[in-house]
Amino acid sequence: MYKVFVSSRNRPLYLWACLDSLHRLTRSAAAITLIDSASDDMQVREVVRGFERRGLFREIVWLPANEIGAVIREIASRLTQEDELFGFIEADTVILPGAFDCWLAHMTGLMHDDPGLAMLGSLVDPGDFVDPVQALRLEPGRPPHDVGDMIYYGDPGRQDHRPDTPEQLVFSPHNPSGRLLVLRREAILQAGHASDSDLHDNLRALGYRTGISTRVRHRHLSLLNIFDYPRYDMTARHEYMRGATYRGQAEARGFSREAQSWTREPDIHLLTPQGRIEPERDGPWLRFSLAEAGGPAWLMSRRGFALGTADQRPLGIAIDRLLVDGEDMLRSTALAAGWYAPEEGWRWTAGRAELPPAREVALRLTGVVDYEA
């Protein structure tokens, strides 16, 4: 039996539609736990009571505050070693019928077939994206940026990505949305619970894969807030979700310059199956010699954040030169797991960056950030 966690707060219309789709389309054994983050709309409890009477839930948790860290802790406390996979769904999500008997059985089956797949999401139905011209007409007094935020104007789902072939069951045009996920517990323990984009990046840096099911589709009802809940506070939503980012979690632990809980020493080294390799300093260069060229190697450092800036990414080190067996590879597309996209004259790692097979590696450091001590 798989455990599935539903995260909710207010918006009872959307909650009813979400729970109804779970009730209708979950046809394999599942222990569903609803975790409500201090809803203050009394209709929420009426909706929940109706699905409690239907027998949908294993457990209902009413949190005293709207704080995403508490949701993460409630989920983590209920997972055991027997839970290889578990599900997560936000209460603004409606699962759509498809070419499967049960969405949960289909997605867990895909992950059992691919042990390297650690995070599997589903396709969003693009039909709910609101036209920006229509949205501006509905809200003429709002700044255009706020209206665009309300209708998720920058959401990658607007691109309506399609798999390369109709037979493709999993693809990865962008990180899986956190609205409907099946996750591999062991991988999440290694990476740490986080927002969908942070988790996607960190899992890839650890050598796992993420993907999106092409068969399981969902509606994202928050795309319709402008009609049903036009006073929905997107600023508060962003602040809530920021608490799930690695930076938000670090700050919640007290990571700050004021607390003097940081260091600027990145602890740069290579990691191979044979162990840790320290660099040899050669002027501005750090050089590494590997005994074998055939095995995997990772460029390692502490991981921190650019405190005092708007950059939310977990960052390792910034380098402006990378020589792999003498070849300059800083901007190479062969660098993927653990590497951010090249910037003007440098490239950041995420703290654990995979390298191509090599005997000699040399790099030139150009930037560090604040790291947790």
Description:
The chain is an alpha+beta fold. The protein has two domains: 2-244, Alpha-Beta Complex (Spore Coat Polysaccharide Biosynthesis Protein SpsA, Chain A); 262-372, no CATH class. The chain has eleven helices and 22 strands. Helix 1 (12-25) runs parallel beside helix 2. The chain starts with a strand and ends with a strand.
Please describe the topology of this protein.
Layout: E1 2-8, H1 12-25, E2 30-37, H2 43-53, E3 59-63, H3 68-78, E4 85-90, E5 93-95, H4 103-113, E6 117-124, H5 132-138, H6 144-150, E7 170-171, E8 180-184, H7 185-191, H8 196-205, E9 209-220, H9 225-228, H10 234-242, H11 246-252, E10 262-263, E11 269-272, E12 275-277, E13 280-282, E14 285-289, E15 297-300, E16 304-305, E17 318-324, E18 327-328, E19 347-348, E20 352-355, E21 360-367, E22 370-372
Parallel strand pairs: 1-2, 1-4, 2-3, 6-9
Antiparallel strand pairs: 4-8, 5-9, 6-8, 7-9, 10-22, 11-12, 11-15, 13-14, 14-21, 15-20, 16-22, 17-18, 17-19, 17-21
Helix pairs in contact: 1-2
